Amino acid sequence: MAYTDHRTLRRVLRREIVGTIGVLTDEHDFRAMRRYDTFVFDDHATYLKHVEAVLRTRALQGSHTTVALFDPAEYADYCAQYGLDPDSHLSRTRFTAERAAAGPAVPYDGRPLSDLMTTLVDEAVRRATWEYATTLLARLGPCASCGEDLGHAAFARASRLVSRILDSAPPGDRHLVCSVSGPPESLVAVLHADDTDDGVRIDETEALEFTTVLAVGLASAGPGGLVMRTSAPGAPDRIHGWRIRGQGLIPLTAGEVFDAYCTDTETGDIIPPESHVDYCASPDLSDADPGPDHRH
Fold first, then answer.
1. Separation between Cα atoms, residue 37 and residue 29, nearest integer Å
2. CA 128 to CA 214: how far, in whole Å?
3. Hey, which end of the chain has fewer CB within 10 Å, N or C?
4. DSSP assignment of the chain, as one string?
5. pLDDT for res 28
């Protein structure tokens, strides 16, 4: 009887244990792991089917599982750093647990694994973009004339501009995209702002990433732009746009917004305009920055 009780108690405790699995999302990473004898899969599609089966089984058993990206190159570096055998499932689980705690990871919620992997990759790209943009701002250093931190100044200006855009936008759900061209790399960030009964709802992490990328555009000499699409029930979508120039945003005319949306950026070919969409002149945001301009 005591043995049965102990078994029952341990089974109950196992329900309290959460799990993490690292997923190889593409064929290239999968092939890199095949060099290890303890990695027994031969086919990427079969591997993904088994991963999804395990996730579904754990969900049916009431277990929570977090899905993280598994990067073979980072894994090899990790094993070298800590003196671990890379050809060991114990090393893989340790790496996965630590990376999931610090890096992009999403909970399994019953969605198809393909959808979950898309979300996971998008999250990884967002995080990498924010980290790179933050590094670029930090490299600006202090102003040689007055000592002001140029990165902080650009971020403060970007924050004021984002607030102004949201405050001046027509009612509806807003979708903003900010793009800044390299070199060496182009940056793109997205911000969603939804109308609710309690006011505008935004994701704080998304807002931080978006503002950081805009700050890079304001602080750099590279070209960039910002567009906003507003959707409201029973009304056409409204699209506005601005160029990022000279530490500010230059509003586009309705014609310029139309041209930007209806021209293929790679080929220059005309793209048919969307139906039920208004391409609008954009408000001037020059009065949105009451702080002192940094023009040294």
1. 16
2. 15
3. N
4. -HHHHHHHHHHHHHTT--EEEEE--SHHHHHHHTTSTT-----HHHHHHHHHHHHHHHHHTT--EEEEE--HHHHHHHHHHHT--SS-HHHHHHHHHHHHHHS-EEE--SS-HHHHHHHHHHHHHHHHHHHHHHHHHHHH-B-TTT--BHHHHHHHHHHHHHHHHHHHSPSSEEEEEEEE--SS--EEEEEEEEEETTEEEE-HHHHHHHHHHHHHHHHSSS-EEEEEEEE-TTS-EEEEEEEEETTEEEEPPHHHHHHHHSB-TTT--B-PPPTTEEE-PPPP-GGG--SPP---
5. 95
Give the model's pLDDT for residue 221: 65
Written as six digits, the tokens of 206 are 């998304």
pLDDT of residue 145: 77
Q: Where does residue 232 rank: exposed (0-12), middle (13-18), buried (19+ CB within 10 A)?
A: middle
Q: Show Cβ contacts of residue 44 under 8 Å, excluding neighbours closer than 6 positions.
A: 24, 26, 27, 30
pLDDT of residue 91: 96
Nearest 5°: CA angle at 274, between 273 and 276? 125
Q: Which residue has 């939804």 as its token pair?
A: 194
Look at residue 278 in the predicted model and tell me its pLDDT. 93
Low-confidence stretches of the chain (pLDDT beneath 50)? 1-2, 288, 290, 292
Q: Measure the CA angle with vertex 162, ends 156 and 163; round to 5°.
A: 90
Q: Which amino acid is at 110?
A: G
Phi, psi for 7 (deg, rounded to 5): -65, -40
For the record, the structure tokens of 237 come out as: 């979508």
